[in-house]
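Ticket opened by: R.M.
Priority: normal
Category: complex prediction / small molecule

The reporter submitted a protein together with ribose-5-phosphate and asked that the result be attached to this ticket for the collaborator who will pick it up next week. Submitted input follows.
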Amino acid sequence: MKVVAGNASPMLALRIAKTLNLRLAKTTFKKFPDGEIYVKVEDFDDTNVVVQSLNCNENVVSLMLLFDALNDTEVVAVVPYMGYARQDKAFEDGEAISIRAIARLLESYASKVVTVNIHSKDAASHFSKLIDLDAMPIIGNYFKEQDVVMLSPDFGSYERVKVAAKAANCEFDYLEKRRIDAETVEIAPKNLDVEGKDVLIVDDIISTGGTIVEATKILLKNGAKSVKAACVHAVLANYALNKLYNAGVTEVIATDTVERVISKISVAELISSEL
Ligand code: R5P
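Result attached by the on-call engineer:
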């Protein structure tokens, strides 16, 4: 078995290969002047683990070409960040269910698909061969020795944060939206008093950073001593990190499902345990 590093995930692919004592196949990526992508894979095996996150459109095309280059071999698709999962249903008539299209693509080539914290159960329901791993215990472990309280920015991520907080052995809560009157909505921690506390906001994805920026404003207004943020998938669109630091977030930490400078926590062992 060989590990094939997609253009989006070379560091994680190498970490997985090292964990499993496997070798990397040789991959070449080029772009033609018109923007078309060229992919070549050499030294592959009969069974290959392709590692490629789908955090932009180009990465989807590259993955498709990697699959084609591995024609006639058994392919396990490791997609650490499953892009397009937020469009997991048709919210309006005529909309594409994007993750369904991605699922069909992946499962037409791969014998198994492995991902980390896919955005929702609805998204996962479009796959039939999916293994969805949870990085929240690893995130929790990373913060074990730190005196923090964990906050989910909304109820949607509360269950995830609960898992991270259990691993970190710390208090946790979520931000709740309360309607005071017809004109006023107040957002505040549901149960915890954050005054004087070091707060860690935990979410699955940081994309534009808007969710964390808003949560940070509220927490600082409620007297939090400091605010840090952690996520599984550091998509970081549109200068998100700058926005987060400008808002007063003192540190942002992520896993390496999307490879960024803040990817201090690796999911390599977690993924390797499923291969
Ligand atoms: C929402 O459902 C997700 O859990 C994240 O909170 C969201 O995707 C973050 O996006 P952004 O960074 O653009 O606010």
